Amino acid sequence: MTLLKADHITKSYAGVHALRDASFELRAGEVHALVGENGAGKSTLIKALTGAVIPDSGEILLDGTRITENSPGISKSLGIAAIYQQPALFPELTVAENIAIGQERDGSVFGMVNWARRKQRAKELLDRIGARISPEQIAAELSMPQQQLVEIARALGANARVLVLDEPTASLSEDDTRNLFRVIRELRASGVGMIYISHRLEELPAIADRVTVLRDGQTIDTHEMADVSSKQLIQLMVGRELSGVFPKREVPRGEVVFELRGFGSREAGIRGIDLTIRAGEIVGIAGLVGAGRTELAKTIFGLVPPDTGVMLLRGKQITIGHPSEAIDLHISYLPEDRRRHGVVLDLPISSNITLASLKHLSGFKGMNFRKEKEIAAEYTRRLGVKTPAIYNAVSTLSGGNQQKVALSRWLVTQPAVLILDEPTQGVDVGSKAEIHELMMELAEQGVAILMISSELPELLGMCDRIAVMNGGTIAKVFDRTDATQDLILSAALGH
Prior knowledge:
Blueprint: E1 2-13, E2 16-27, E3 31-35, H1 42-49, E4 57-62, E5 65-66, H2 72-77, E6 80-83, H3 95-100, H4 115-128, H5 144-157, E7 162-166, H6 174-189, E8 193-197, H7 204-207, E9 210-215, E10 218-224, H8 230-238, E11 256-265, E12 270-278, E13 282-286, H9 293-301, E14 308-313, E15 316-318, H10 323-328, E16 331-334, H11 338-342, H12 349-353, E17 362-363, E18 366-367, H13 369-382, H14 399-411, E19 417-421, H15 429-444, E20 448-452, H16 456-462, E21 465-470, E22 473-479, H17 485-492
Parallel strand pairs: 3-8, 3-9, 6-7, 7-8, 13-20, 13-21, 16-19, 19-20
Antiparallel strand pairs: 1-2, 1-4, 4-5, 9-10, 11-12, 11-14, 14-15, 17-18, 21-22
Helix pairs in contact: 4-5
């Protein structure tokens, strides 16, 4: 039975079509995957379903009845709820208080909050999805998977019949992912319809019943999940055969560009790091959460002070006490969390791209805006950033295009050493292939690249050597010809 239907939805922004006659159908008790490249229209379609945007044309039907007026409040009252990649909990409130938001009058007496009833209601909802979380725990103390479970409990408390899950496993471990899938299956069995958005195509067969592909704002096709392969989905998403998601080419390795000897920082929790990177080499950093990968990158870049060992650039010892000193030495760092640290969402694309190069764009006469425009236009074109104008705010871009802007900023500085922390996390397969191709082009130009990734296939597919971290230090270094997923995981676990 069709539960929710988007019928021929069109939505434009400043003359650019985000959706063009797109359609989507969700059945009761179904997990329906929605896939597409960044900018394909997935977010706009979800916003239309949840009332955050009003379509220019088309209609949305719930149980066969057209929704004539819509807004986030109306869609919530109709049982449509969305849980995004970054959970939207109030950090200083308790779990019970967060679950009760929007349901304040439920269980109240004479307008007063019935605290006992509120806690009991939260416990019932958490128990329903098997979440071992205290209703009295402060939300700021919760892990990412716990926050997601609280959001699911809150949606169920509002009698959600349609649940949108946007990249729900992007920040989860394998164990947390398995637990989330268990919750999803239980909700499916109870008749809840779920729209599942994910760039991790390999996980879809384990959880989705059907899959719909969007491309350039249009619905391309809908398939039973069992009848379509990841390779076929990729071709539908990008509209072409990809030459390879991992376009690794052999590059002659030059001189040692960057070296660490006995490098460490008590504040960062890293110690005894010995590492070299040659010109044209891509060195990967693997390890479990908490192994010290990101902490190592931050210490190299001057965000955290080192207290042991030495750092050398082309054989000369260097000291970096601040990121500005790293930039002057042509050492660049693309951080893991692009929305918090990679881009400034409210600034224009042009300003974001030139943010690390202001010293070269300003003088006694002020900012050279003509030069800024030229640079922004060049790198927007070079990296294929999809935008109608370089003066649009970065917040208007899709996740993959935001990542391209963040990467452009560091390419403008002409880096000798480029540190990439999860460069393809949360981006679609087409953007991932483009970023990997760009990495290869930089390596061919002699850039020394250090890439941190939680995806073992990415490390194996792109790196010349892989250093595995455990307990704040490098436990093992593998050459690409010797590395396997099992060996890397074993070293990461300390075996």
